[in-house]
Amino acid sequence: MCFPFSCPEPYAIMPPLELFMEVPYDERRAMLYRDLERGDVVVGRINNIREYGFFLTLLCTAGGLKRDVEDLDLSALCHIREIPTSGSHDDPLSYYQIGDFIRAGVKDIDRYQEKITVSLHQSSLVPDLDLKLGVITKEELPVHYSRSLRAANDTTETYERILSSCHGYHNPCVVDFLLERVGVSDTQPPSLMRGLQSKLFQEEDFATSIRKKQSASWALKCVRLGVDHFKNGHHVEAMNEYNKALEIDTNNVEALVARGALYANKGSIVKAISDFELALENCPDHRNAKKYLSQTLVERGRQLEEQEKLVTAEGLYRKALSLDDTNPEAQDALTKITDTIQVKLCCATHYFVTYLTDKILFFSFF
User: Fold this and answer.
1) Using CA atoms in the order 212, 218, 220, 226, what is the torsion angle rounded to 10 degrees?
2) For residues 332 and 326, what is the distance between their CA atoms, to the nearest angstrom?
3) What value does the CA radius of gyration of the chain take, rounded to a whole number of Å?
4) Which one of 152, 168, 238, 281 has the largest count of C-beta atoms within 10 Å of its C-beta?
5) CATH number of the domain that residue 259 is part of
6) Which UniProt keywords apply (predicted)?
7) Cβ density class 178-202: b for 16+ within 10 Å, e for less
8) 343 pLDDT band (50/70/90 cuts)?
9) Same domain assignment for residues 154 and 241
């Protein structure tokens, strides 16, 4: 009997392939931060609840990307503003307990500092994912994760044995289903002939697009090496890695932000601002780029104040606040310089009026 495509398991849902391979811990961790995107779904267990949100120990991904990451010691923050209020609970955190299984959407990823924030709002998911976010039961854990646990606890389980035990593997329609999922048609089969590729393949399947993704991945590895050097105090080596990343991928946002931070740390404020602004041109919503640029603009404004360029400095403080309205240094600097400019204007006006009065009296005397 041919299972319908709406069947719970129309094809074999398998544990991630790396479970059956000897992939180093660091490489698996780096691959997750490389591949995870905003809008993806993760599943975790609450390990800590604070007044500003709760922390998850990540167990696996769900949705499109399927990875089991429980052994990678990954943590994610769900801020209180990302937790919907539920029913009679005025405090949204009162509904949750340590140990609860949580399904959440990825809100933001800081790839080079390796920080993940998640959200329980449905709007955080990509449009084609229709999964309920929040507390889930153990039975609702992703199938691939449950099968991974089984394989991890039973050394006799092999990839082939798990595959043959899946209901979806025995579905007579599985080939038709998978062909439809990847967009391959029996009537228009794909070909390696260039004359046919332009008609049957999407733009992202061409070598130029694939090479661009490979370059971005390679550049990100250089950024991670640079961050490691920076943490160890090796600033020259860190700068070399960031420059190498930008040679590979000219507009790599993470490399620009990391290099900008290093410039700012060394006191090269103008160069840091340039890198942060270019990063925001390529990714206007990059949180760290906004935050660092806001801080650096305040520092540059202080330099201009020392040079008596008050109006220009005021403009930088206003721009810093527009990027990060929670920046207390920018707010304080703007308030002080506004008062200073006002005092100088009053003094200048008083001097000018006094000068005119003296002139009028002088000519009146004659």
Assistant:
1) -140
2) 11
3) 29
4) 238
5) 1.25.40.10
6) TPR repeat
7) eeeeeeeeeeeeeeeeeeeeeeeee
8) low
9) no
